[in-house]
Amino acid sequence: QQRDKLRQYQKRVSLSLERERELARRLLKEGRKEKALLLLKKKRYQEQLLDKTENQISNLERMVQDIEFTQIEMKVIEGLKIGNECLNKMHQVMSIEEVERIIGETQDAVEYQRQIDEILAGSLTEEDEDAILEELNAITQEQIELPEVPSEPLPEEVPEASPVKNRPKPELVAAS
């Protein structure tokens, strides 16, 4: 408001300066040099007042800008304060120990999944391969129980008569 009042004052003084300049010219034409000199001194004084007024307006504008910037800073600080309070509440809910426990569980789960992926991908170590082969041998020996092999030699193969020749001849059955 004060800045606006000073600008209005500047306009009035500027208009007054123009009138006094014109009046000083007229007085010089009329030969009234003393009166024209007095008006020019007054005009000079008012010009200095205009310069001072301009400096005051500049100071006021700078102050308004500083106030606006301070208000912005206050909003930023308030936002930081609220954010800090939220972080503190979140920290109360979740302790460092809880976070470490969750991270540990996550790492265990990731390691377990990696092992499953390796098995499915067939990237087994030599120890794993050996253990798997031993288990396979154990399972196959459990399941297959072979009969004992006779210790006597098998007889030589004797050619038998053709089964068609030894077949009895069909009898004719009379229809009754």
What summary fits the major beta sheet? none
- Spans of at least 5 consecutive residues whose pLDDT stays below 50 are 172-176
Mean pLDDT: 81
Tally of DSSP helical segments: 4
How far apart are the termini? 141 Å
Q: What share of residues is helical?
A: over 70%
Tell me the total number of β-strands: 0
Morphology = rod-shaped
The run of helices and strands is HHHH
Rg value: 58 Å
| Domain module count | 1
Describe what is shown at a glance.
This protein is mostly helical. It is built from four helices and no strands.
Textual characterization of the structure:
With 176 residues, this protein is an all-alpha fold. The protein has one domain (1-126). It has helices spanning 2-30, 33-93, 96-121, 126-143. The longest helix is centred in the middle third of the chain and has 61 residues, at 33-93. Residues 172-176 have low confidence and may be disordered. Its main location: membrane.
What characteristics describe this protein?
176 residues; mainly alpha; rod-shaped; coiled coil; membrane; transport
Write the layout of secondary structure elements.
Blueprint: H1 2-30, H2 33-93, H3 96-121, H4 126-143
Helix pairs in contact: 1-2
